[in-house]
Amino acid sequence: MVEAVLDRRRQRTRKAAVAAFIELLMEQGYEAVAMTAVAERADLGRSTLYEHFRAKDDLLEASLAYPLGVLAADPPDVAALLRLIEHVRERAGAVRIMLEQPLRSRIARMLAARSAPGLRARCMATPRAHVRAHACAEGQLAALAAWMRGGAIAAPALAEELARLSLAAARLESP
Q: pTM to 2 decimals?
């Protein structure tokens, strides 16, 4: 019982911190967001915030847990990608900010870090897995950014292309 209460409290704290981070990101941009401002906005003590998140990148990654998980899925799930595209459409303002440089490169590194272990598990050498994971991540984010700018591709076709990028990265044979 006590553990369940602590877990709910931990989840509420993390949720409040992530929500505050996203609000500040939208208002100020990534570089201007300070951890102290996140703590203040979330009504948390600084030490409490740092117990959950060591740095802004940890907050950024937590705020992107759902999209990163779907994009890094192995094997890719086209239905989940289609739901992600709808999620992106509903949050277009925040997504546009996140798909612009230099934040997009930071997100691509996070996505590649989630994808590389699956590639290594396929017996792909670590340097090659890292390169392919990063190329796939950059490609997926570029495709989403182009779609957000009004690309003519329909959401189901975009979901299929995102899946194809993942599958291409996982191929073991040389191109």
A: 0.88
